[in-house]
Amino acid sequence: MTRVFSGVKPTGHLTLGNYLGAMRQWAAVDQYRADSLFCVVDLHALTVDHDPARVRRLSRQAATLLLAVGLDPELCTVFVQSHVDEHARLSYVLECVATDGEMRRMIQYKEKAARERERGGSVRLSLLTYPVLMAADILAYGADEVPVGDDQAQHVELTRDLAVRFNQRYGHTFVVPRATVPPVAARVMSLQDPGSKMGKSDDAGPGIVYLLDEPEVVRKKVMRAVTDSGREVVYDREERPGLANLLEILAACTGGNPEALSGVYESYGSLKKDTAEAVVELLRPVQERHRALCADPGYVEGVLRDGAERARAMARPTVDAAYRAIGLLPAVSDTDAGVVLNAAR
Ligand code: AMP
Ligand code: TRP
């Protein structure tokens, strides 16, 4: 059976971009057709300036939202990255396979590091090594597919390179995974700045629709979306990015096609109105389930505990195999010490 792994980091409230670009696919398709794991990647949230209490809060909220969008713990494994030691164990080994040069070439690193330096801050070393930890997340589980938004494609490509390199040098250990990106809304843009991604950790609040925004707030944000000068509704990502973004959001919400939808609308106003309503309707059931889950925190905790246990059992053998393959001496208990030490010689 195909193995799927993906994750979301608790650096801010989850957005419509997270949902359309990734989570919806996990809940609607992946969990039914594959043996899948979905993870709140909290270690990744420590790569930038962070408040410990906020990360804890956002991790709990992200886990609750994963269930609220429809992930079913009977069908898939939902867990928190830091609850499973194998991620950090494998990350170090992969750091011994990755190069400094390939880390520095990562677009997300270059952008985030530049932003941090502009602010006069310092760049954490973990921001540079972040893609290696992400590769460890994926490779520890032998994932075949990694459903992500467009912005993560480069990191999955790096993961493939590391897997191939490790396998060539030290013997076949890892499955070489591939990214799967949704056909529409793989990159939802900010409603205020259609040139940049709708990112949860960005400051431009009015340009971001959060999954837990009240319907009135969603309507306001969509109605105030920046569009381009011009009158006709046409789908052109290059020349009319603001309009294209709205058409893609509407298409993703309604299962339509952005190009075809552009022919249906005569004015920007009516497009915005329908898009706002489509988003409100899309989020309604998610928000309802989120409310119900918040009333039962013990349930969410139980799901995460079981999830971590299952995940540990899946990752352990692969990470142990990688340790042996790269030359680390197995730790053994007294009873089987002789046997294993002899086998490892
Ligand atoms: P992150 O918020 O960076 O943890 O992302 C979690 C998942 O959501 C990843 O698969 C991202 O590629 C996806 N994602 C985040 N923002 C967007 C966006 N604006 N459009 C489409 N996908 C996104
Ligand atoms: N880096 C991803 C992001 O920013 C989150 C992530 C971490 C991830 N580990 C992963 C996604 C493993 C897929 C698979 O969105």
Automatic annotation (TrEMBL):
EC number of this enzyme: 6.1.1.2
Acyltransferase as UniProt keyword: no
Keywords carried by this UniProt record: Aminoacyl-tRNA synthetase, ATP-binding, Cytoplasm, Ligase, Nucleotide-binding, Protein biosynthesis
Motif ('HIGH' region): 10-18
First-tier enzyme category under EC: ligase
Reaction(s) catalysed by this chain's protein: tRNA(Trp) + L-tryptophan + ATP = L-tryptophyl-tRNA(Trp) + AMP + diphosphate + H(+)
UniProt-annotated location(s): Cytoplasm
Keyword Heme (UniProt): no
Subunit-structure text: Homodimer.
Protein name: Tryptophan--tRNA ligase
Source species of the chain: Streptomyces cylindrosporus
Upper lineage: Bacteria, Bacillati, Actinomycetota, Actinomycetes, Kitasatosporales
Encoding gene per record: trpS
